[in-house]
């Protein structure tokens, strides 16, 4: 798959074919992708917890907040919940700072997941204390992000931002999830080119 | 290219064939990849400055710090300096928080660059005030990361972490850049699988 197609297919999926489980070996291979990415000062302070079993998925699920812009939707129903999780933590014994390593790792994992036919969502609304207990994490590990994974069971489309500039995603009557994205030109502040590199 | 190969090829390159310039259209296409990525609360608060001209590259270069672990190397010499930059800032009028969006965007851009035959490096050691002046950024924009880009002119290899646990990258007598990466198993804190998902 060309890289742009991978990026386009990598939407934030929140509903899955829960019965289609993900082998642990796939989760390990995804972490190995993250292992090979850039890390600030090459500290490599991120640590990963891998959950593929049905019972532990059930324990992780209640620690997560879903889709803040869909207040009437309490998250995926049984049968459409994630089939696996990768929980990204940082070992505070190694660093007190976060330079963006977790974003680098999370994006790399999700792009790799899409290539394997899965999809997922980065969740930042997490009951971190409770999830750390569920996973039995060491005290020095601080949870930064949870990646929910599975075979997607929903359609997600990218729309232009509406005229009123509302960035909130929404779901239509057919259940299609719409994500407004800003126009390309609005993201570019300045550009400097010359004869050699002109567009 | 398979995604894992893309990740493996995407090393942090700091020396380039400076004369091989990057068309502005390529930089714009890379920002369009970042535009399509996940964004916390879908705020899409990142803003991008694109530099491909020789003279502006010369103005950006002195604002950057290079390779903290190579104290005797002051950065790439003329002729091997970056051929372009993408400067990632956040618009503080939109958010006061950084959830990792810049890591997501930076990694996506660099992976896209590798597919196009370029390579680059995320630089966090930046004279932000000076660079903001050089680029003429609005006061509300805070620079988070600089991506240095070009056609790589160095070999970068991933090594196992040495026994003493030293994470510092180093350069051998042949000029090959070595980056020690932790062993996969050391990054995985816990794993939970069952009969269906066992390895």
UniProtKB/TrEMBL annotation, chains A, B:
It comes from the Bacteria. InterPro entries: Nitroreductase, Nitroreductase-like, Put_nitroreductase_C_bac. The keyword Oxidoreductase applies. SUPFAM superfamilies: FMN-dependent nitroreductase-like (SSF55469). One of its GO terms (molecular function) is oxidoreductase activity. Residues 11-150 form the Nitroreductase domain. Keywords: Oxidoreductase. The keyword Transmembrane does not apply. Belongs to the nitroreductase family. This is Nitroreductase family protein.
């Amino acid at each position: 798959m060309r890289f742009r197609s991978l990026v386009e297919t990598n939407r934030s999926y929140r509903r899955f074919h829960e019965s289609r489980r993900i082998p642990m070996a796939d989760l390990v291979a995804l972490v190995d992708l993250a292992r090979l990415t850039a890390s600030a000062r090459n500290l490599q302070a991120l640590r990963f917890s891998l959950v593929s079993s049905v019972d532990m998925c059930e324990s992780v699920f209640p620690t997560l907040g879903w889709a803040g812009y869909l207040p009437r939707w309490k998250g995926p129903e049984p049968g459409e919940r994630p089939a696996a999780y990768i929980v990204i933590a940082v070992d505070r014994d190694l660093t007190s700072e976060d330079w963006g390593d977790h974003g680098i790792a999370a994006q790399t994992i999700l792009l790799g997941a899409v290539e394997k036919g899965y999809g997922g969502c980065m969740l930042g609304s997490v009951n971190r204390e409770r999830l750390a207990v569920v996973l039995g994490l060491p005290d020095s590990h601080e949870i930064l992000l949870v990646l929910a994974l599975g075979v997607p069971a929903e359609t997600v489309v990218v729309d232009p931002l509406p005229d009123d500039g509302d960035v909130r995603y929404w779901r239509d009557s057919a259940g299609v999830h719409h994500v407004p994205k800003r126009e390309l030109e609005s993201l570019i502040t300045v550009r400097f080119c010359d004869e050699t590199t002109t567009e």
